[in-house]
Write a structure and sequence with these properties.
The complex is a heterodimer of chains A (112) and B (113). Chain A is an all-beta fold and 112 residues long. Helix content of chain A is 0%, strand content 54%. With 113 residues, chain B is an all-beta fold. Chain B is globular and about 40 Å long. Classes of the chains: A mainly beta (112), B mainly beta (113).
C-alpha cells in the first residue's frame, strides 16, 4: 500500500519552461515533505522541503506547494535547465527518528 | 573527507554468503538510515538508528542485521544473501534539528548470484 505516490514515471519539458512534478500522499501523520533529485550512479540529493504548517516554500528556481486538504504537493522548477534532467523523488516523514517514505520517482527530461 | 561514504561501491556475492556494507559519516549526526532502491519501488527503509546502540526496523528488515557501536558508523549485514537482495543500497544520516533532511551516501550496488 503506497503511502506516497508519484503517478508520472516521466515528464518531458522544454528548456526555459516550467516543470511541475506532482506527488500525493495518504498518511495524515506525515508532518514534513521533501524533494530529492537523483542522477544515475549517485545518491539522492536534497532539494527543498516544506513543513505541514506551511503551504509554500521557495528556494531560487524551486518552489514546493502543499495542499493538506487534498494531500497533494507539487514541485515547480522555473525556468527549467538542462542540468535539471534527473529523477525526482517526493518523500514524507512524521519526523524525529522516522525514516523517509519515498514515492517511486519521476524522470524529468529537459529538452533543448 | 567530510560527508557520508559507503563501501564497497560495487559487490558481487553468491547466494548464502554473508556480506557487510559499510557506512561512515563525519558530521556526528545522531540519526542514520539504510534504504534499498529497486526498480518500481523507489527507496524503502530497511533499518534506522537514533543514536549509538539504538537501532530499529524499517519497512523491509527481513534478512538484514545492523549495529551501531560508534556514532559515525552504521554497517548493514546480509547474514545469508539471497537473489531478492540484489539491489542498490543507500545509507543516509540526519541531525536532530526540525528540518528532517537526510543526506545520502553514493550507494552500493550489490548483486547476489
Amino acid at each position: 500500500d503506497q503511502q506516497v505516490k508519484q503517478n508520472s514515471p516521466s515528464l518531458s519539458v522544454q528548456e526555459g519552461r516550467i516543470s511541475i512534478l506532482n506527488c500525493d500522499y495518504t498518511n495524515s501523520m506525515f508532518d514534513y515533505f521533501l524533494w530529492y533529485k537523483k542522477y544515475p550512479a549517485e545518491g539522492p540529493t536534497f532539494l527543498i522541503s516544506i513543513s505541514s504548517i506551511k503551504d509554500k516554500n521557495e528556494d531560487g528556481r524551486f518552489t514546493v506547494f502543499l495542499n493538506k486538504s487534498a494531500k497533494h504537493l507539487s514541485l515547480h522548477i522555473v525556468p527549467s535547465q538542462p542540468g535539471d534532467s534527473a529523477v525526482y523523488f517526493c518523500a514524507a516523514t512524521g519526523g524525529g527518528a522516522d525514516g523517509l517514505t519515498f514515492g517511486k520517482g519521476t524522470h524529468l527530461i529537459i529538452q533543448p | 573527507d567530510a560527508g557520508i561514504t559507503q563501501s564497497p561501491r560495487y559487490k558481487i556475492t553468491e547466494t548464502g554468503r554473508q556480506v557487510t556494507l559499510m557506512c561512515h559519516q563525519t558530521w556526528s549526526h545522531s540519526y542514520m538510515f539504510w534504504y534499498r532502491q529497486d526498480l518500481g519501488h523507489g527507496l524503502r527503509l530497511i533499518y534506522y538508528s537514533a543514536a549509538a546502540d539504538i537501532t530499529d526496523k524499517g519497512e523491509v528488515p527481513d534478512g538484514y542485521v545492523v549495529s551501531r557501536s560508534k556514532t559515525e558508523n552504521f554497517p548493514l549485514t546480509l547474514e545469508s544473501a539471497t537473489r531478492s537482495q540484489t539491489s542498490v543500497y543507500f545509507c543516509a544520516s540526519s541531525g536532530t534539528g526540525t528540518n528532517y533532511e537526510q543526506y545520502f551516501g553514493p550507494g552500493t550496488r550489490l548483486t547476489v548470484t
